[in-house]
């Protein structure tokens, strides 16, 4: 009896927590159908007075919105792939190679996790400006290509793999490149999938850095575009929420495609934010 009661309490708490987490997404979906008058009512409404896709039409009618989406998708994919390649190679070297300064590099990478990113904005901006990378995809993603947290996490994961696997591969004549491609990547698929998704989401959601390094409208990302849409529509929030729902679609698609590996990574305890 006590066990059943405790199970019921836990289920109720988990359900309440899930609803709390999902509420912003549910409200954004409902608010995307609000008219301008619905936002001015008091008390605030939960459901729209009428259901219409007019806000979606207004959001998509912005001629720059497809460009914003393209820029965010391209920079998100480029950043995720670039970060993963660098993280894989760096973590492999730190895990398996013995060289002078290895521990120092590890310590420096760990220390960078405690440096607030905002402190580096001015220096990074001046560097990108001197390199002539303003208003470019490379300029947007350049500061995200060395992921210290992912390098450290992958290093720990690689160290958890039995050394006998690498020794056997070496005895069979496998080079480091062959070992990484044929053995290490398949073993690490769940972790790699999770990190790729994290990198994509982080870059896609980035606002301040793309705002600093882009001046041309055709290089703006969708997060900036949604803000500009708000000004263009005189703070009529319906099109803004509609744009937010549209922006969520790539995330849902990626999660649906990768959810099994993400769940496997969560079970292994390698979800690292």
Automatic annotation (TrEMBL):
The keyword Cell membrane applies. Its main location: membrane. It comes from the Bacteria. GO terms for biological process: transmembrane transport. Signal peptide: none annotated. GO terms for cellular component: plasma membrane. The keyword Mitochondrion does not apply. SUPFAM superfamilies: MetI-like (SSF161098). It is found in: Cell membrane. This is sn-glycerol-3-phosphate transport system permease protein UgpE. The lineage of its organism: Bacteria, Pseudomonadati, Spirochaetota, Spirochaetia, Spirochaetales. Keywords: Cell membrane, Membrane, Transmembrane, Transmembrane helix, Transport. The chain crosses the membrane at residues 72-97, 104-125, 137-158, 179-204, 237-258. It is a multi-pass membrane protein. Belongs to the binding-protein-dependent transport system permease family. Residues 69-258 form the ABC transmembrane type-1 domain.
């Amino acid at each position: 009896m006590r066990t059943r009661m405790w199970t019921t309490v836990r289920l109720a708490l988990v359900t309440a927590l899930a609803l709390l987490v999902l509420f912003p997404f549910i409200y954004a979906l409902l608010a995307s159908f609000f008219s301008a008058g619905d936002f001015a009512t008091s008390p605030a409404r939960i459901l729209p007075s009428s259901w219409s896709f007019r806000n979606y039409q207004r959001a998509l009618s912005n001629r720059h919105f497809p460009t914003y989406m393209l820029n965010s998708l391209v920079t998100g994919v480029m950043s995720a792939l670039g970060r993963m390649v660098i993280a894989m190679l760096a973590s492999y070297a730190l895990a398996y190679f013995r060289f002078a300064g290895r521990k120092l590099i590890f310590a420096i990478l760990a220390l960078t996790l405690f440096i607030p990113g905002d402190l580096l904005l001015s220096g990074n901006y001046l560097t990108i400006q001197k390199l002539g990378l303003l208003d470019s995809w490379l300029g947007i993603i350049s500061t995200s290509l060395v992921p210290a947290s992912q390098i450290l996490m992958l290093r720990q994961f690689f160290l958890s793999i039995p050394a006998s696997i690498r020794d056997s591969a070496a005895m069979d004549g496998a080079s480091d490149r062959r070992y990484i491609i044929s053995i290490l990547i398949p073993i690490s698929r769940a972790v790699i999938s999770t990190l790729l998704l994290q990198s994509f989401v982080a870059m896609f959601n980035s606002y301040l850095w793309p705002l600093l390094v882009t001046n041309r409208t055709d290089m703006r990302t969708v997060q900036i575009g949604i803000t500009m849409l708000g000004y263009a529509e005189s703070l009529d929030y319906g099109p803004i929420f509609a744009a937010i729902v549209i922006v969520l679609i790539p995330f849902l698609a990626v999660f649906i495609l990768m959810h099994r590996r993400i769940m496997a990574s969560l079970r292994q305890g390698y979800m690292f934010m």
